[in-house]
Amino acid sequence: MKNYIFPENFLWGGAIAANQTEGAYLEDGKGLTLVDLLPTGQKRWEIMMGKLDSLEPKEGEFYPSHEAIDFYHRYKEDVALFAEMGFKSLRVSISWSRIFPNGDDETPNEAGLKFYDQLFDELLKFGIEPVVTIAHFDVPVNLIKTYGSWRNRKLVKFFENYATTILERYKDKVKYWMTFNEINMLLHLPFVGAGLVFKEGDNELQIKYQAAHYQLVASALAVKACHKIIPEAKIGCMLAAGSTYPYTCHPDDVFDGMEKDRESFFFIDVQSRGAYPGYAKRFLKENNISINMEKADEELLKSHTVDYIGFSYYASRSTSTDPEVLKNQTSGNIFGSVENPYLEKSEWGWTIDPKGFRITANQLYDRYQKPLFVVENGLGAVDEMSENREIHDDYRIEYLRKHVAEMGEAMEDGVEILGYTSWGPIDIVSASTGEMKKRYGYIYVDKDNEGKGSLNRTKKKSFYWYKKVIESNGEQID
């Protein structure tokens, strides 16, 4: 395999989220957050779509976020393992409800603030740059109960207060920020993306796009605050990315693919270019969606655009306008995709498309002409431990090797990329399924889908592979 030259300051690392790792879900004054209401099993999907009948955890249900992998108590051990791999960066999120347990509190929770001080100090001790997501599928449950979450403009002020608080607190420790994780997920998993709960008769499309507008305004306010409080910092947005291929070269399929991509680009067009694009205005008009927009919103969006585009890439998508082709949907893709006959699939039905990574990176850079940051990429798979307690995850190494190579190709194409933080460098709770057996990590965590296990950490074969990649700054990926 060809060798690639990455910039000297390239931010190799990994990415995790508070709600999938920390556990300690009501410890040290933390309030309930939306993910604390997601059980394992059949109901999880309905709840993620906004269909839920309780805003309290229920007796008899298993909620994997409540303990997760206990990163809250074990972060020093885990950071030491990341440092052993040579991480230059670690993407984490701050739990909103650890800082403001109810979301609308007048003063922040000092115990929560202190935890992240300690975490960032530990990272910096090893020369690991924290990359911080302000909201990663995270709304304090009280804000859902009291205000209806992001359907209510009051959330903008609460978010601004939260963002300003953490920007001030960590201004000397964190130089890379992101506003909302996978902001376009709001359209596909509205409870996860925005804490939205729907009742019978609700105009769900109207509610989702109104919530999207409020998140976009809130994002602009966070960018404004960051540029004022930490002028030397970079603050970005984040897209769940993956190009949509037309199933055939029929113009209707090509146009449908463009429209599917635009559904997601809409969010980044606003955050990066500073205005609602024409195609979005047409969509809103044709669907009778009326956005409640204050006079100052347009100027705010225009004046406070992001510094870089963060994105996750797991798979490309494919679309068709042929009803017969549409019957062959892949099982694992949240965005909906017809099966691509040219691609293999993971155990969870996600297409494996390294070349699509290069295509997506080029597409984003051509569109926005701003630095990109690959903040999620990885393979969820079942890992088996051998009798001598080794995990030979060659399939993961193969997936990552091919994707890192295509990232190198994209950079040779002229795409500016700040760093690569692969998803789940340690096994964590799956956001989509709540499972532990869907593992992404270089580090195995002894825990099963029912929550049983010692939580002991074990290095996989991929641990040593990624260590070599970082040591060689991407030159040795074989």
TrEMBL record:
Biological process according to GO: carbohydrate catabolic process
GO molecular function: beta-glucosidase activity
A cellular-component GO term for this protein: cytosol
SUPFAM superfamilies the UniProt entry points to: (Trans)glycosidases
InterPro entries with a match to the protein in the record: GH, GH_1_N_CS, Glyco_hydro_1, Glyco_hydro_1_AS
Residues annotated as catalytic: 376 (nucleophile)
Keywords from the named record: Glycosidase, Hydrolase
Family recorded in the similarity comment: Belongs to the glycosyl hydrolase 1 family.
Official protein name in the record: 6-phospho-beta-glucosidase
Phylogenetic lineage: Bacteria, Bacillati, Bacillota, Bacilli, Bacillales
